[in-house]
């Protein structure tokens, strides 16, 4: 079926471009696969024969590292991207959109020193206060199961000089898929039931202190704790999610499940384990934060825009390789290819590498606020931000006529790429999740290129294992090809895209008509209180 479609499609394209070719294409069976628009052919060829993805990945993830908002690494990445674009002959600049708490991660050395010595798999959280040259050796105390907040206040002096363990001890370090494969059905069910009960009990334990997991660390700090210790297991072998600290003077540390469990059991059994903690970090005061914007100027309709989009920032437990390094690289590679094979686009092709998506789509929201002239003239925007996989999902985001242009633009892509893309029309407008939502809220036809998950949620998303080795370069190359083709087709389209919104469905729980998401203001000053 697909072959037939290709065949007809190719004939159609050639019939438009060069009628004399039609006969050739029809008689030459072999020619069919290559009988495409030469720009499309060249996109595929450049992406395949001259891929820069590995080099870019190495420079960005191994060399520069993670890109937490307000860190020198984020700034370095902004500068690196501008320099890359310049080297490809593409205009780029860093556009300031706000200020953030400037912080720089230093070393984390965390060891068990009693009753035996072992280096622990642990790291300070983002924004953890520095300890200077100090090293603290201390025992641990487990957050107790108190009756109520009064009882907690009475217990609180016990934290003085100790590291306080605020996470529960996971009953298993094996992911559920591993249990599913090897456990008896009864044993798997029992484990899940016990774990659910334990998880609820732990949430209740925190609640009974009268605080939340966000406010508790500061209370422990005020009461003289040496540090706050947790373990945010990400439900896979060896993965923890590494987010930010709430303490202001004492370190907040994540310890991997295996070591955390050991410390927890040793503490619980009265063995009084002692850990040695030395973390360093630097406060840099408020620093400017940027979006990196690059453009290939349009020749016929320079004031209409095809936009590529991916957030540039990341959390910093790993190197942000798949969140959102892979989206970043896809867009950079697509721009590089377009500049080479399609240097004079009809419409202007823009790319936005956004800052501070992780704290609430801030860079893209700021761009939408600062550039109404661009937003109202966006032909289409393509954002990618859910890992390294092949693009398999494309939703019309509630735009009534998106099915017409998106399916038409997809059509010339090689079938091995196009065939795995499931489209959903009209779809519903995304209210968040990634930066396309900032544009959808403003009524611009912005779309999310949804990737195959490759265990994204548990293994790489915001984890300590979000690193270079998780990238699937074949999939990334396909995505760069698809993105470049969509950008090319959107740029060449004789018509400006429709922004007509579909009538949204009634929510079957509340019975209310769904509303188009409203724009949300960017946080322009972040992390400072
Ligand atoms: Zn992301």
Task: Write a concise keyword list for the protein shown above.
single chain; about 525 residues; alpha/beta; 15-stranded mixed β-sheet; 18 helices; about 35% helix; binds zinc ion
- The tally of helices reads 18
Q: Which small molecules are bound?
A: zinc ion
Q: Mean of residue pLDDT?
A: 93
Largest sheet: 15 strands, mixed
What's the count of strands? 15
**Class from helix and strand fractions:** alpha/beta
Q: Stretches where pLDDT falls below 50 for ≥5 residues? A: 1-32
Report the end-to-end length measured between terminal Cα atoms: 61 Å
Backbone shape: elongated
Helix content: 25-40%
The share of residues in extended strands comes to 15-25%
- Gyration radius from CA atoms, angstroms: 26 Å
Fold and architecture overview:
The protein is of the alpha/beta class and 529 residues long. It is built from 18 helices and 15 strands. It has a 15-stranded mixed sheet that branches. Helix 1 runs antiparallel to helix 2 (21-27). It binds zinc ion. The site of zinc ion has 6 residues, from helix 11.
